[in-house]
Amino acid sequence: MTATNPPTSKTATTAAPLHPLLAERWSPRALDPRHELTVDQLTALLEAARWAPSASNTQPWRFAVALRGSAEHAGVLDALAPGNRAWAHAASALVVAAAETAAPDGTARPWAVYDTGQAVAHLSVQAQHEGLVVHQLGGFDRDRVAALLAAPGEVMPLVVLALGRRDEGVQLAEPFASRETAARDRLPLDQLLLPLQPVAVDPAA
């Protein structure tokens, strides 16, 4: 069973106003199989990631870009879980986001995964600004993707980003068609807040 996607707006319902780039960002699967990323767009996305904050400015994120139609794109696509391959083949680019978990001298970088997540978040906001979409994929064979990376040292693939432009006319099979039009949902804000235990402080200390 297939369905045609109607024009979709998924602006977040929030307790306080957000910047539209944040409120309107979501993760489509209906991608235009004809769209091609420009050099300027791709550069802007990677620059946004480059300027993310990181612990001690270690900048542990690494990106491998595979443009649709290339052997690299086919290799990354083949390493995705079947459910992701069903639609991600149309992505203008598949980008592997990886974390360098140890410095060149072998020193562990305990915040590398967190910092790489920040870089990907920056990239996703820039993509929204560019009129592009990002769908982050955790369903892939990490060993196979790691083998594709020409990277020295300890580099851990974390996520594959399907980049492109949403196409309202793309027909997705179920269950993806229903997910494309389903309302966005998040936990209420009060469920995300943790109380802090009071601690007695000696004023003389």
Poorly predicted parts: 1-6
The CATH homologous superfamily of the domain at 43-177? NADH Oxidase
Mean pLDDT: 92
Strand order of the largest sheet: 2-3-5-4
Q: State the major sheet.
A: 4 strands, antiparallel
Could you characterize the architecture of this molecule?
This is Nitroreductase. InterPro entries: Nitroreductase, Nitroreductase-like. GO terms for molecular function: oxidoreductase activity. Belongs to the nitroreductase family. The chain is an alpha+beta fold and 205 residues long. A 4-stranded antiparallel beta sheet has the order 2-3-5-4, sandwiched between helices. Helix 2 packs antiparallel against helix 5.
Which descriptors apply to this entry?
30% helix, NADH Oxidase, 6 strands, globular, 18% strand, two-stranded antiparallel sheet, four-stranded antiparallel β-sheet, 7 helices, alpha+beta, disordered N terminus, 205 residues
